[in-house]
Amino acid sequence: MENKYTSSDFFSRELSWLKFCYRVLKQAQDNTNPLLEKIKFLAILSSNLDEFFKVRVASLKVQADQNINNLDISGLLPQKHLDEIKKEVSSLVKTQYEYYSVLSESLKDEVNIHIKKFDTLTDKEKVYIDNYFRDIIFPILTPMAVDAYRPFPNLNAGQLHLVVNVKERNGINFSFLEIPSVIDRIVKLPGEELHFILLEDIIKHNLLNIFYGYEILSYGLFRITRNEDTTIEDENISEDLLMEVEKEIRARRWGETVRIEYTKETPKHYLEFLSEKLESNNIDFYEIDGPLNLNFLWKISNINSSDNLKFPPNIPKFNPDFKDDEVFSILKNQNLILRHPFDSFEYIINFINAAANDPKVLAIKQTLYRVSGNSSVIKALIQAANNGKQVSVVVELKARFDEANNVKWARELEKSGCHVIYGLSGLKTHCKALLVIRKEDEGIKRYVHLGTGNYNDSTAKLYVDTSFFTSDQEIGIDISNLFNKLTGFSKIDNWKKLLVAPQYLRNELYFLIDREIKNAKLKKKAKIFVKANGLTDKKIIEKLYDASKAGVEIILLIRGACCLKSGIKNLSENIKVYSIVGRFLEHDRIIFFENNGKHEYYLGSADWMTRNLSERVELMFPIENKDDQKKIQSIINNCLKDNVKLSIQNPDGTYTKVPKKKNSKSFNVQEYYRELT
Question: How many CB atoms within 10 Å of residue 445?
């Protein structure tokens, strides 16, 4: 079959994701954000880029090093892709530090929050810092010389390191000094003013005390990022997946170096030395005009201050009647749709607690992908097991960068008597499902929670997600069958309402898009709306191009990477792509099909990316009740009404803020839901 589309019809996933990073960075310049909130976005960008290099860039480097010449969706070979990423990241980081410089001055001038250099300290401050160094810092430090007897040290990824050229009798040698992470990087100076100094600046000033009796010729500061894209192949698992995951977590510490960030003062020959010793000729070096790793700005942003420097508090809404037996009385008669973080995560906690303590409840089954470090969900499940309920939990041990946390909770759940399952071989379990089985007078009744976000009470305060509670019988049966597939051996595929990946969701989406295409060709009403985190699957994008050519109106609200090109004549002229980046991270997945006036709405856990549709257990579920549909349509309308944080994709892949219409009021969709009573 002839391919109708070429690589020029798609954006690179990685380069599109970096465009998302630009949208994050723009929030540091957005005057609708208070000053202390602006600096958070600089820290967020640093964290985002760290993960990008650990995984996405690392994977491309492996392909380039091994001469695996796979073309990406946009036709880029691995090395060419890396070259383009280097250009984009260099520009992005340069802009990030320009914003940092401007915002640092604003903090100092407007609110007297000042991150000082050592040479600007007052005499009193210098005395305090000298004592602080002697009493607190110096005992922790471990200088590591490199010579014939002392080998090149293991350098911890993500940590700041000083490298120092020390003159000895026998010549010039290097010594390394890790900036300790066991004490705060940002040190408060004495006095009432909010004045600080960075830990590395204190240590740099005291190098002569650290290397007492030696001449210091030069020094530099750097930070390395390693390949942490470790994957556990199912065929390599001999007996215990838990142990295998723990082994892979340890192995991450010593992956290949993929990036070195260094300060401007660092001599260039140091970089050659590092490259040689780290045994890699494919390291990206980034010169940084400012402090390395702006994550310390989180602490600055959390300073107690006047209200105008921060966003107004978000106070999640909660119905106090949603507890104990009332939970089941409410859900027996109606569905419940919630929008987090504006509606409280306590609804979910209370649902599990009510089930744990209700004598009529027989069993609780739940999937867990990412949970918090001090999880109320886990505590409620353990309480349920202690109360004699049959509790089954599908824990995804391979949730990237949450593996250690999930291993810990899996062990705790097992200790309490819960049945803990690690999912299906070769697939990550990413769906969000919670099932309560209750024996009532009329028989067994199933109560279900399905969501677009993780069962994580920490991220639930920061991510925009949609929850759906129901006692719909057919959905309950579907969820029971899903858990049977996940926990045992079941070939039941007769789904009544759920669209389940990887077996069925992709083909169902094809069917639903094709139906809109057919309607458009028959001059019937045809429209598609998709809200998701990412749109990168080639075949799905091709289907959307087909739909656009047939005349289907398509509106895509994609927060992150989008490989689809919108607004291109004879390709995608009927497609508009938007993105919302604001105070909270837009995370829910909402899908709408016009279906010639017979509207269909779906929520789900899956982005329209290959990994979600083909490599994970995912759910998309229908919203059928007319009142519930009105709520979802209202969310769609309000998102597209935003004229403060909404951006539109241009044909070249850049994004522009949607302009405010003449005489219209500012409308920020996240603030609208925060203020809604």
Answer: 19
